[in-house]
Amino acid sequence: MDIKNIVNFIFELGQLKRQVHTGWWHAGVKNPVTVGEHVYRAAQIGYILAVMEGVNPERVASILVMHDNPETRTGDFNKVVSRYYDKVEGERKVLDDQLELLGEEVKNKWQGYFDEIEERKTQEGVVAKDSDWLEVAFQAKEYYDQGYRSAQNWINNVEEALETESAKSILAEMKQTEFTDWWADLKKMTYKKLG
Questions:
Q1: CA distance 56 to 32
Q2: Which of 52, 116, 131, 168 could form a disulfide with 46, with the two C-beta atoms 3.0–4.6 Å apart?
Q3: Mean per-residue pLDDT for 87-108?
Q4: Can you give the pTM of this predicted structure?
Q5: Residue 173: what pLDDT?
Q6: What's the rounded Cα separation, in Å, for the pair 6 and 100?
Q7: Calpha distance 148→160 (Å, rounded)
Q8: Which of 33, 114, 117 shows the shortest CA–CA distance to 76?
Q9: In sequence order, which ranges of the chain are alpha helices (DSSP H)?
Q10: Using CA atoms, how far apart are residues 51 and 57, in angstroms rounded to an integer?
């Protein structure tokens, strides 16, 4: 492994912090979340979902951490764009180029991860894809609750796509929950009454 190649790849990953999930523009969201933000939460969802499904959580989280790396070069292929271009083929080409820089061990492992999530050929791949989709549904719910009513379409699409029972139960509960409910019982007044 060439250290300069590793350094350049790490800088390239920084693009994911700047690359927005462009599909949200179709829902009217002016400043959508970035691909990096999506990956972060998807990996954590993946860990939890893997535990619930009884598969290897570290493997699922690892798959999710790298699953959108090709978007540093392609940008976000939202569902409208994907209608006209083969997303998987393009991302596979990018990933192959990226991995040439990182050595055989990383290359072999990450190509396997990419295949697992795209082809859902293992239980970890199925859980990873469900986690990827769940994260999108959670983001859609946040936007929906903020008034972007067309974000409901993302939730509906995810609901149709989910494979695991755990993901389906999480989605069902999410649909009944306001995105701000998590902090409702945490806030506490910190002043003392005078007199």
A1: 31
A2: 131
A3: 92
A4: 0.93
A5: 98
A6: 11
A7: 21
A8: 33
A9: 3-13, 15-18, 35-53, 57-66, 71-74, 79-82, 87-100, 104-119, 123-145, 152-161, 165-175
A10: 6
